[in-house]
Specification:
By secondary structure, this protein is mostly helical. The chain is built from 13 helices and no strands.
Length: 274
Amino acid sequence: MANAENRTFNLPAEALAALSRLIEPATKDALDAIAEDIAACENLYRAIMDRGGQLSEDEAVFVKAFLEEVISLEGEDAGDAACTLGALHYSGSITPDGEPDYERAFELYSTGAALGNTQALVNLGYCHQYGRSVPVSPKDAFECFQRAAFTTSMPEAIYKLGDMYERGCYVERDSELAFGLYRKAFLLIQDNPDEAPEIKASVCHRVADHIAADDKEDEPVAERRERLLTALELYQSAERDYYRAIGTGAYYYDRRLDEVIAAEERMRTEFLRR
């Protein structure tokens, strides 16, 4: 992440104290050198974030200071750091009381988006969509998702833009266009096995809903069953990835998981209907 180039990397005193409690006792003599070594700090940062789970108080202090320092260096990773720190404030993972700080998250997402970070731009869209620190604005949400979708091949941005058309938020409802965007996002995630499980699940869920609903009058039985099987397989894929997302702490996907499980049963029932 970090790219200090000719700038000096230094952690503040509070972060130094936290760092001294996080590193191995054998390395404490080299604390000052570690605190000024952006690569060493990045390794510790990644180890903390890769572990997952709730951050300890010392970890939160260190992570916050590290990301703020990366942002201040204004290097190529500043936008990514701003987006990550914004997400930690949005979830409350890094706030003293554990409560979300949507206002600070919005500020950091704005910084990240201005620095060209697409995920930060998408996250701004969520803030506008759900009124996180700003009034609900379908217009601003649409513009964020549209900009992100048109400037990158990011599945999350594309399917969120599809949602705006599917629901008629700010734009005229266009289910066919929405389905096209969902399919585009689906094709993109096939090429990226490392895509986040919640994104894969959300995309498969939406594509499956459209295929399941595409029943035509006098549809031949064989074609109907093939369509239902395709939808069933997509729902099952979504189910697996919703479980994976929930396993990482994203419990707000519980309801979506229930929806796909119920949809799977409907597909089985419809398949057996003569």
